[in-house]
């Protein structure tokens, strides 16, 4: 059985972690396959928004496969940690906007995958958290770095050092997730959110994401220069001219990503 299920619907890509019998835990096979799928998406101009989710109804992902972990040497554990960090960084750096559609438990590496995405939409009846310190380790796939950048140092320190498992509404209060919806509305709400972005210029989406992510890690003047250069890339595009024509003709623009 493939550990990753991939589906494309129009300009929307769905990546499903496909180990429901293991609560979609990450083994090395899954990490390798996920990396390959993500790399293919990165260079696919037809994909404009990417959604990550988990198979089944119990878990988005509970993180590392601890059954596999018990059989690994220290060297292979280091290999896995390097691989998961590498894959999640590739996901964070995808030019397309990304959404984690969190359909169940998201612990450890599962939560770190969600943190590597731009947005997180979660079912209202589940739990999530960075629980690694309860296993005498620390988040090793970006959690100690992405979480404080998202919600602030003090809150991140609290959640990581206590290994607290948050209910969905609590996660929203902490700023971990974008939106909490009833489970039966999760797919529809995610699709609606994606559609709001798909209605916009695909090159503009990518350049806006690039400017925000790269500018956040720079001083203001450098960030403004990044923004200007990103803006300039949109000027000669066919989509910009199409938007102006559509505005004048009082119709919806048809963007081609050119």
List the helices and strands and how they pair.
Layout: E1 4-9, E2 12-17, H1 28-42, E3 49-54, E4 59-61, H2 66-69, H3 74-92, E5 98-102, E6 105-107, H4 109-116, E7 119-123, E8 127-129, H5 143-151, H6 153-162, E9 166-167, H7 168-174, E10 179-181, H8 186-198, H9 202-216, H10 220-234, H11 238-248
**Second-tier CATH architecture of the largest domain:** Alpha-Beta Complex
Oligomer: single chain
CATH fold topology of the largest domain: 2-enoyl-CoA Hydratase, Chain A, domain 1
The stretches of 5 or more residues where confidence is low (pLDDT under 50) are none
How does this model look, in words?
It comes from Planococcus massiliensis. One of its GO terms (molecular function) is hydro-lyase activity. This protein is an alpha/beta fold. The chain has 2 domains: 4-198, 2-enoyl-CoA Hydratase, Chain A, domain 1, CATH 3.90.226; 202-248, Orthogonal Bundle (Lyase 2-enoyl-coa Hydratase, Chain  A, domain 2). Helices cover 49% and strands 16% of the residues. It is built from 11 helices and 10 strands. The chain has a 6-stranded mixed sheet with strand order 1-2-3-5-7-10, sandwiched between helices. Helix 4 crosses helix 5, helix 5 packs across helix 6 (153-162) and helix 9 (202-216) packs antiparallel against helix 10. The radius of gyration is 19 Å and the shape is globular. The mean pLDDT is 93.
């Amino acid at each position: 059985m493939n550990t990753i299920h991939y589906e494309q619907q129009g300009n929307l890509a769905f990546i499903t972690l496909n180990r429901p019998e293991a609560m979609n835990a990450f083994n090395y096979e899954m990490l390798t396959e996920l990396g390959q799928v993500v790399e293919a998406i990165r260079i696919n101009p037809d994909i404009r928004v990417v959604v990550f989710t988990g198979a089944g109804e119990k878990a988005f992902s509970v993180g590392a496969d601890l059954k596999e972990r018990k059989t690994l040497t220290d060297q292979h554990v280091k290999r896995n940690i390097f691989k998961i960090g590498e894959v999640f960084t590739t996901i964070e750096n995808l030019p397309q906007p990304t959404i984690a559609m969190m359909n169940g438990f998201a612990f450890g590496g599962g939560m770190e995958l969600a943190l590597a995405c731009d947005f997180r939409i979660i079912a209202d009846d589940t739990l999530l958290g960075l629980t690694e310190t309860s296993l005498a380790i620390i988040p090793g796939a970006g959690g100690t770095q992405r979480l404080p950048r998202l919600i602030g140092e003090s809150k991140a320190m609290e959640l990581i050092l206590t290994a607290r498992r948050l209910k969905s509404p609590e996660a929203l209060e902490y700023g971990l997730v974008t939106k909490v919806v009833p489970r039966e509305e999760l797919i529809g709400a995610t699709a609606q959110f994606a559609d709001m972005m798909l209605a916009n210029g695909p090159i503009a989406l990518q350049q806006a994401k690039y400017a925000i992510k790269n500018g956040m890690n720079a001083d203001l003047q450098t960030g403004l220069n990044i923004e200007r250069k990103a803006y300039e890339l949109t000027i000669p595009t066919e989509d910009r001219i199409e938007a102006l024509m559509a505005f004048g003709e009082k119709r919806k623009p048809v963007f081609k990503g050119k």
